[in-house]
Amino acid sequence: MKNQSNIDYNLVFILLLLFFASCISIYSAQSSGQYVGNFLLKQVLWYGVGCGIIAGVITLDSDQLKKITWYAYGLGLVLLVLVVVLPESIAPRINGAKSWFKVPGMGSLQPSEFVKVFVILALSRVTWSHHEKYPVKSTGTDFILLAKLGATTFVPFIIIMQQPDLGTSLVLLAILTGTVFIAGITWKLLVPIFAGGASIAASILYLVIWKPEWLEKYLGFHQYQFSRVYSWIDPYTYQSSIGFQLTRSLLAIGSGQTKGKGFGQLQVYLPESHTDFIFAVVGEQFGFIGASILISIFFLLIYHLTKVGMETKNNYYTYLCVGVISMITFHVFQNIGMTIGLLPITGIPLPFVSYGGSSLMGNMLAIALIFSIRYHHKKYMFSTKE
Transmembrane stretches, by residue range (predicted)? Predict the structure, then answer.
């Protein structure tokens, strides 16, 4: 390491807090009697792998990151295609989705978790290159940039939707949205686009409720995706079937009340609580206070990432920060929102806390970019250069 003083120890501290939160929550979840595997040990091992990822990526400066961007992006697309076309003996279908590779001795690997970070790299590279090529802005150049960003995102988006994996697809759209806002594109283009997007989303929601067969026939949606909307709107009507997970989550969080039932005191049966519904475990054990502390840690993380993005004078680094912030923020709000019934269930894990090797390594790869930015951060007296 060239200089340990360049290591972002504040970010290290925040990750340690999330690590302890993850260990405590997963240990409690696996002790509830419904599991036989030691998920805590595996999560600790995945955190170790994630630290290795950070140690490798932190040595890469902006020029090196730009050079590997399209190789990583291309590799990601190849993996996404393979997971769709390979037989189920290699890429099994789990819960209706074909999103994982079966890896001997490792379990499963979900390439889309890494593709999210590759897309952040690609969008940052596209935005930076565009502004280098067109230093003078106009509506025409902004439209070209918008088209480039859209094409870069929608190629993996379309492939992921074939799995189908709606949750990850929405994460890609969140990353695209954040990049578009920071790219300096004129509002003359953005207002009609986002207004049109909101209208399309509202129309799709209407069709899901009243004309789901149209979406199945013409847009390739699947019935299980509609079920998530139905269980979100009226979970207690479907609590014996598609609304079971949400109603149990609400019961677990509500029963925790203010202070919670105490460490290890889980009384509400909630399937797969160690993964996507880990927040319900926190709510039941530690109540409103514990859940609020966990949310505060995430706000602290997002604040720190925002601070890093604002301090750097390197525009490329700023684009990377915005992509990572968009990804993590969407994950946190979507996951917590779905566990408390504010948003539909999409199968998105809680970053750094939910159990899952692919998810954790993908998030650690994203955070590794922030460590790299801070590690190569330079400040010059009497200059705005970096």
Answer: 7-27, 39-58, 70-94, 143-160, 166-183, 190-209, 277-304, 316-333, 353-373
